[in-house]
Amino acid sequence: MIDPQYRKDDGHQEIISLEGNKIKGIKSISQIDPKHFWSNCAKNLTWFKEWEQVLDWNPPFARWFLGGKLNAAYNCLDRHLISEKKNHAAIIWEGEDGQSVTITYNQLFYRVNKLANALKRLGIKKGDRITIYLPMIPELVISMLACARIGAIHSVIFSGFSSQSIIDRVNDAESRIIITADGGYRRGKIVQLKKIVDEAVKQTSTVEKVIVVKRTHEDIDINEKDIWFEDLVNKESNYCVSEWMESNDPLFILYTSGTTGKPKGVVHGSGGYLTHLFNSAKWVFNFVPTDVFFCTADIGWVTGHSYVVYAPLMHGVTEIIYEGAPDYPDQGQYWNIIEKHGATILYTTPTALRSYMRYGNDIPNSYDLSSLRLLGTVGEPINPEVWMWYFNTIGKNNCPIIDTWWQTETGGIMISMCTGIENIQMKPGSGTFSLPGIELEIVDDHGKKVEANKKGYLTVKEPWPGMLLSLWNNKERYEKTYWEKTRNSYFAGDFAYVDNDGYYWILGRADDILKVAGHRLGTIELESAFISHPSVAEAAVTSKKDEIKGETIIAFLVLRKGAELSSQLDIEVNEHIKNTVGPIASAEKIYFVNKLPKTRSGKIMRRLLRSIVNNETIGDITTLEDEASIEEITHELQEINKHL
Ligand code: WT7
């Protein structure tokens, strides 16, 4: 354990009014009267109409701030126009090619309003769904906020996904519009996004228009449904009235991987979600007006939704959005951006840090990183060595590190040190404690609390404002996934333990979800993609520990009768995966086997495969249908390993 003292801002202010309350500490207040506590937190937002009821808890459905009316875009933009923030930079956008564009709050406001008007002109109404498939360019933020302004529900798809992922998500949400770009840049190369969308649109029936942003200016096919973004917004006026949204009206759907083949459409509203975001950002990041916040997450994932779009803009800070990859144009790109724009907070992933650490200290040491005051990580466990490197080499022993645990479903940060409210000892690798108002418990298979230092399932005991409203069109799956296993408490799907000092330690997923470079992928989703290749009959996907990415994908495939095992087949199958799911789903290794290890009831024993590929001891195999199959695989692996 180390005890790095961190700088505390002199301008630090308490955001929860303690009004005459004698009890010290925000946490105890939240426990004594959670509703009163959260309603004070909600007052940090701008409401058109105040709520009638703080919480309606009808397990497992929580509805926060019932009857309250507000608008997310209004909270991110309009309320800054009457302050000195009006002409401050909202976004500093850094292109992959080194160009920087600064957009002030006022400019962002205008651009959002124009698009909102255009969407209305296309007949989009409150509650309609719009799919957004864009690279990390300002139009992505503008599109989300334009949807929010008119009450349309945005469904953003990470631009690294391929057409099949778009088809599934557009069809499930029944989107009327797709907003995309001609293409995007990735390490200097062009990704033809419009082409991928064209493929997808052929297999959807609800899409009426495809709005296309010009980014690469390449020649692309223009179809009947296509409209150029520029042409659409140019003729629109600068003001569009904000829709009064009920606190629990959906703000967005964000699809995420689960334990079945079909991705889950996680639905978040505005009142609760934004309350959680505003306050968590205040507690964790302790935002001050001079902050330049650099969150490196792609907006296609929840970190981008919550802490690139909504939280920093509600706070009126300046944020950096970077278009490209951490190692492009060179291995110092994040440090270059921090120096160039004077970033004060870096919020990134352990995967990115592991890569940078491997590139050596000379690179970060050649940049001026003295503007930094706080460092954060998110998305996967951080190894203590990497944590120490981050602290010493990037933070120069001067910046606290926040290791934030949360999920697409939780909306905002749940576990983290709160630099805005407490001064505690950090422990590298632990996220420390839960945020105020967040009540966690580690339980066993029977839902019983386990003692300190014992591994169990991480659960949330009480509803919290950022909690998902439900899964899109699938209440049953919502109840089953999150509320069946541990009863009466939210099942997060992670293993964790609490140490003797009460610190939380996350031990990874307890289900069939992989975290590859921090990206969430479902094993069964990947297996279906493998099986859709004409040569593949059966597939089992597992993961192998990886020094950089945390884990990588390993696939075991059984060929169809008559299919030929050529030396190129693994490359061909991998190409197929990249085209159907996306480049992030590319397998590290593909093994062709005769049989998969299954239980007597026919379930693939992925855990066993995981043990084999990670050289761990194999547990009980007596439930196997045919023990020979596992020996076969072990044997095959040994054979293969000989050739490596
Ligand atoms: C899963 C959620 C958190 C927003 C981005 C990812 C893992 C997340 C941590 C952390 C260890 C972490 C968990 C979680 N995870 N943060 N600080 N330490 N593991 O959101 O894609 O919904 O994934 O990411 O396994 O359940 P997501």
Automatic annotation (TrEMBL):
Gene3D superfamilies: 3.30.300.30, N-terminal domain of ligase-like (3.40.50.12780)
Keywords: ATP-binding, Ligase, Nucleotide-binding
InterPro entries xrefs: Ac_CoA_lig (IPR011904), ACAS_N (IPR032387), AMP-bd_C (IPR025110), AMP-bd_C_sf (IPR045851), AMP-binding_CS (IPR020845), AMP-dep_synth/lig_dom (IPR000873), ANL_N_sf (IPR042099)
EC number: 6.2.1.1
UniProt record, GO biological process: acetyl-CoA biosynthetic process from acetate; carbon fixation by 3-hydroxypropionate cycle
CDD domains assigned: ACS (cd05966)
Entry GO MF terms: 3-hydroxypropionyl-CoA synthetase activity; acetate-CoA ligase activity; AMP binding; ATP binding
UniProt-listed Pfam families: ACAS_N (PF16177), AMP-binding (PF00501), AMP-binding_C (PF13193)
NCBIfam families named among the record's database cross-references: Ac_CoA_lig_AcsA, PRK00174.1
Name the UniProt record assigns to this protein: Acetate--CoA ligase
Gene this chain is encoded by: acs_1
